[in-house]
Amino acid sequence: MKLLDLKQFNLPDTPGVYYFKKKKEILYVGKATSLKDRVKSYFSKDLFLTRGPKIVKMLEEVDLVDFKETDSVLEALILEANEIKRLQPAANSRDKDDKSYNYVVVTKEDFPRIVLVRGRELLKIENLKLKIAKQFGPFPHAGELREALKIVRRIFSFRDVKCKMGKPCFNAQIGLCPGPCGGWISKEDYKKIIKNFVLFFEGKKGMLIKSLENEMKLLAKQQKFEEAERVKRQLFSLDHIQDIALIKRDIESQQNKDGGAFRIEAYDIAHISGTNVVGVMTVVEDGEVNKSQYRKFKIKTDNPPSHTRATPKAPTRREATVWQGNDDVGNLKHVLSRRLDHPEWRLPDLIVIDGGIGQLNAARAVIEERNLNIKTVAVVKDQRHKAKEILGFKGPTLSTDSQGRTLDRAILLANSEAHRFAINYHRLLRSKGFRI
Fold first, then answer.
1. Strand 102-107 vs strand 132-139: parallel, antiparallel, or unpaired?
2. Half-sphere exposure of 169 toward its Cβ, with a 13 Å CA cutoff?
3. Among 57, 223, 275, 371, which is 20 to 30 Å from 340 by CA?
4. Could you give all domains of the chain from N- to C-terminal order, each with its CATH number?
């Protein structure tokens, strides 16, 4: 499909969810602040670099674009998650089975709590002595989901994981929890709140509004005017959802995908004699660290400490076994491969590796296997672990980014951040007696 072909679909400049189709088959589902602008962005010249080969290949097959408008970006976010779960599009595979994504859980209790949980923790939620009554997701971006829950909570206040029964919690005192912890609300009334929350996250806004209108009329008829006024405010909030924070996040995310800031990703491996091996990724954009983009990678090895040596369990996809604990080159290739398995993460303009020519060649091999064109350099250290050379650039001076700044300072910043982050993560696991 070409950019000119989009005109026939009359995409509106409103929030909603879009569908890329091949005849009747849905290949991909996404959300947008502006359907028109978002879909148009898929036809930029640097699409391969900004969104990756999987998206490019998918677009070659697309012959139809469909969409559903929503009243807000918040509702688009919820509809996207529900549609991905329902339709299971091939190009959204990251949202179907990746355990690092996020879910909203409604617990099974007399006074249910609303909890944000990562996919890998869904099976472990019993550790909090909680059982799952309902779950929604997956949601790819934790930051967006937290903002969404803040917005919904101002409409339907709810109990969270920090709310303990016995005395009013802090959120109850500021109006974000209805106060079952302090005995301020009955089970029946609290269940109505949870029912409304569930209807909203199921995308049944019409049914929710009708239910609230009936409740308001009944309360007014019973002369419970204060309660009727509360429901009226909820209806008004649903019709005028204040999701400016979500809109801002969505625009910033799109700007990053479209190549706004010059992005450097740095990688490092940390371990002791091949045990408790971890890898990390740090990000520097236009010379500034972006800690929200940092990532950690656990690596299974075949040489655990002698006092914990045991028959290894079958590894999960996210913790694929690398039977080479002391092999920094092999572990680097493993971490970089896992990172590049995320087409939804914006590709970097430059990759920085800690090490020498062996690590540099290994990283370039992984990148070339995926037919990507990403510049890669390696920072060589001296005996005091101070940077003495940067391999990978030709000539006496380093290249410059799109804004004319030299990259050497940004490269060294990214590299030092990766080293610091890896060491701290490794020490944290060791201090907990954690065995990978």
1. antiparallel
2. 18
3. 275
4. 3-97 (3.40.1440.10), 102-245 (no CATH), 261-431 (3.30.420.340)
Give the separation between CA 217 and CA 223, rounded to whole angstroms: 10
Per-residue pLDDT reduced to its tens digit, 154-194? 999 999 988 988 889 999 999 999 999 999 999 999 999 99
Number of H helices, E strands in the chain: 14, 13
Task: Indicate left, alpha or beta for 426 from its phi (over 0: left) and psi (-120 to 50: alpha).
Answer: alpha
What element of type H or E holds 326?
A: none
Low-confidence ranges of the chain (pLDDT < 70): 1-5, 45-53, 93-100, 123-128, 245, 248-261, 273-274, 301-326, 344, 393-407, 432-436
Please give the pLDDT value at position 196. Answer: 95
Q: In Å, what is the CA distance from 114 to each residue of 72, 107, 216? A: 22, 7, 25
Position 104, amino acid: V
CA distance linking residue 133 with residue 110, whole number of Å: 11
**CA dihedral of residues 387, 376, 262, 100 (deg, nearest 10):** -100
The alpha carbon of 135 is separated from its chain's Cα centroid by a whole number of angstroms, namely: 17
| Contact partners, residue 284, CB within 8 Å, separation at least 6 | 263, 264, 266, 290, 410, 413, 414, 417
CA 91 to chain centre: 16
| Length of the chain measured in residues | 436
